[in-house]
Amino acid sequence: MKIIADANIPFACECFSSLGDVTAVPAGEITADAALNADILLVRSVTKVNEELLKKSGVKFVGSATSGFEHVDIEFLQSSHVGFAYAPGSNANSVAEYVIAAMLAVAKKYKFNLVDKSIGIIGAGRIGTRVADKTGAVGMKVLLNDPPLQRKTNDPKYLPLDRLYDCDFISMHTPLTYEGVDKTFHLADKAFFDKLKAGAFFINTARGSVADTEALKNAIRSGKLAGTVLDVWENEPNIDNELLLKAELSTPHIAGYSLDGKVAGLIMLYQAACKYFGVKPEHTTDDFLAAPDIAEIIIDPESGPEQNIIHNTVQQIYAVNRDDFNTREILIVPPEQRAKWFNNLRAEYPARREFQNTRIVFKQPKENLAAKLKGIGFKVQDG
What we know:
This protein is of the alpha/beta class. The protein contains 14 helices and 14 strands. It folds into three domains: 2-86 and 258-287, Rossmann fold (3-Layer(aba) Sandwich); 92-250, Rossmann fold (3-Layer(aba) Sandwich), CATH 3.40.50; 296-380, Ribosomal Protein S8, Chain: A, domain 1, CATH 3.30.1370.170.
């Protein structure tokens, strides 16, 4: 079989070579002509998979290394009898770690303790649930909003949206939908921001268009929001420069870009393709994940306030401020080069490992601190 893979899907060639001849192609070169003779097509969200791309091809299976599939015309694939798989949940832990790292960074800057704060999580799927677990582990009050899940389960923990407006943090984790009772396009609009408590922090790692850019900028300008953490933007890669400048933390849609998450997504696609073609899989995630650079961190629990220790520990694994700094360099790039710069930040993103790969060793026992570090994902040595 002939396989065309986005060149920015790590280890795609090594993994899928057991199924056929793999050619890695830059995303911008995945065209109808490139797909013409392919049997399998592996893409990311930057490639629109539709009739225009595939109508001339013999593609039998499409795999998207993404947690969503807004860029894929599912009806066309089904009508054309083309198999499809994506990677829901593969990046959930990565996004949740990004959120907790960002919140710790914000808390340090503004000198407050997260244990005294509340967070409203809009969208309680795979990612939102992970965010709830991690923020709850550090002692925050967690409120959830997810109308589809509320209707499905009738669970009272899923609250009406207006119950979240008094939270100190609001974090968006919904899919992007344009119609229906649960439409999320511009869910965070002027009316939404007007209802939030003054001094709240707004986090969006879902999709850029879940928030209305103009309404968000006005909420920042007016001082209604104390700060924003933005990983996703309307009109990517042509992002709003004023919003980039005004955001507390700005990153280029990389919250889910941990190496662990990428490899997990790759294996999900590989296993789905093997099943589709009736081939026994030869690879697992262990084949592509090397030992982490930081396998162990030794902590003196008396070295400072508990939250500072957690922040400093997280920073050793993931320094979100570094991604913010690199993203802001877009502002000094000539306007005609900014979209390319944004895409390059994503394409050339360095390997980032998740907390689970690092063991915490305490110089002396500190159960509460150990529980919090374990709760956000680290391995903690017993005793």
